[in-house]
Design a protein that fits this description.
By secondary structure, the chain is mainly alpha-helical. 83% of the residues lie in helices and 0% in strands. Helix 2 runs antiparallel to helix 5, helix 3 packs antiparallel against helix 4 and helix 5 packs antiparallel against helix 6. The chain is globular, with a radius of gyration of 20 Å.
């Protein structure tokens, strides 16, 4: 009997995504793909400023898709704090181009609905950025930019 009840519930109109939800999901996917395409075009043109903007958009769209306000707020706060570092990374030779396949893997996992794989791919992508953070901290300490260090928790 429980199997029948579960089947009936799954057939109930409220247990399925509405047209609005499906439309929203499709729009999010389209916007994510557009941000990824903008990153690829900027990388191809060696336009670091355009890449930086498109890359921020790509990451913000993924955070927004989580529908987790706390996560979004925390990521926004951290993005502001480490933006000088992220901008520096963008200008490193080859970094824009190496980000494209990393973004592609994240995006493909999201589109497939494979949250575990998407999380692993994103973690790998942002971990690469974190490897140079100690260099940034060292630079800030030695360059006299101590005021920036007090803003980083």
């Amino acid at each position: 009997m429980p199997a029948r009840r579960t089947y009936r519930r799954s057939r109930h109109p409220r247990s399925r995504p509405s047209g609005r939800e499906c439309s929203s999901a499709a729009e999010q996917r389209t916007r994510l793909q557009a941000a990824h395409q903008a990153c690829a075009e900027a990388a191809g043109a060696e336009d670091a400023e355009a890449f930086y903007a498109a890359n921020l958009d790509f990451h913000e769209l993924i955070a927004a898709a989580s529908h987790n306000r706390i996560l979004q707020d925390e990521l926004r706060r951290l993005t502001l704090k480490i933006s000088p570092y992220r901008r520096t990374i963008t200008y490193q030779p080859g970094r824009m181009h190496s980000s494209i396949p990393e973004h592609e893997r994240v995006m493909e996992a999201i589109v497939r609905g494979d949250g575990v794989q998407a999380a692993q791919m994103m973690r790998s992508h942002v971990t690469l950025l974190g490897e140079g953070l100690s260099d940034l901290l060292h630079f800030l300490r030695t360059s006299g930019q101590h005021g920036l260090l007090t803003e980083i928790p």
